[in-house]
Amino acid sequence: MSKSIADAVIENFDYITISYHAEADEKLKAQVKQRIMQFHNSTIVLKINVMMHAEYFDDCVNFCNWLDRQHVKYIPRTIDRENLNTHAHEYTQEHKDWYAKYWQKDTVENGRPCCGGRTMGLCSATRFVESKYVDFREFEGWHCSVNWYFLHIEQQTKNVYHHQTCQARLDGTRGPIGNLDAANDLISGLRARISNESLPLIVCPNKTCGCGLCTPKSKNRDTLLQSLSDVLVNTDIIS
Predict the structure, then answer these.
(1) Nearest Cα residue to 135 out of 174, 108, 172
(2) 97 torsion bin: left (phi>0), alpha (psi -120 to 50), beta (else)
(3) Which residue of 51, 114, 150, 180 could cross-link 163, Cys pair, CB 3.0 to 4.6 Å?
């Protein structure tokens, strides 16, 4: 992205995400640093994901150190296999130790943080804790409000999803919920659910949760509704 394009982004957007990929060309990575500082010194809200490529891990750590020196916030992200509770890259124990130190954990295996770096409330029948890193990711069959918080549109296909990564649908499968060419059907269907007080929750169809980790979810539907009541004006529209 050139400086002039970044100027246009700053003028028209409030919030952007930049992903750093260490395997990219050195000239491109240098340009990424320039744009980061341009955005950092502007009015725009900036989020940076550092994709921790195992083969270029030292480069990623050096980039994180540079961001620290610039006082720019970031999230180091392990690279996962889609819908599997394993990493796509082979991380050494040294890599895992660095990651654990960053998240102030004793160990990290197949957990993950919120993509936005949010602090999450984690509770069981016996205790409640707050954490930025979640060790447990297997939510298949849980009730989830991911469809209340996210919407993803693929520009090239015009397909619309509840979420880019999990792609959960209301029928218990994964995939698009519609297409921009039939956007009126999506909108009218949502309006009908709201007017009929039947806005639904997702039942997670995935083995593990990738992105969307921070959206409220629970094994028990009533427990989820109770947690949502703190942020919703009217929970009568939930089905």
Answers:
(1) 108
(2) alpha
(3) 150
CA 113 to chain centre: 9
- Tell me the pLDDT tens digit for each residue of 81-114: 654 445 567 889 999 999 999 988 888 887 888 8
Unique residue bearing structure tokens 């991380």: 91
- 1 pLDDT higher than 90: no
**The overall pTM is greater than 0.85:** no
Q: Where along the chain do its domains lie? A: 3-110, 143-237
Spatial CA neighbour of 210 closest among 140, 141, 149, 155: 140
Rounded to whole angstroms, the Cα distance separating 222 from 201 reads 11
pLDDT tens digits for range 136-145: 888 999 999 9
- What ranges in the chain are assigned the alpha helix state H? 3-12, 26-40, 57-69, 93-102, 146-149, 183-195, 221-228
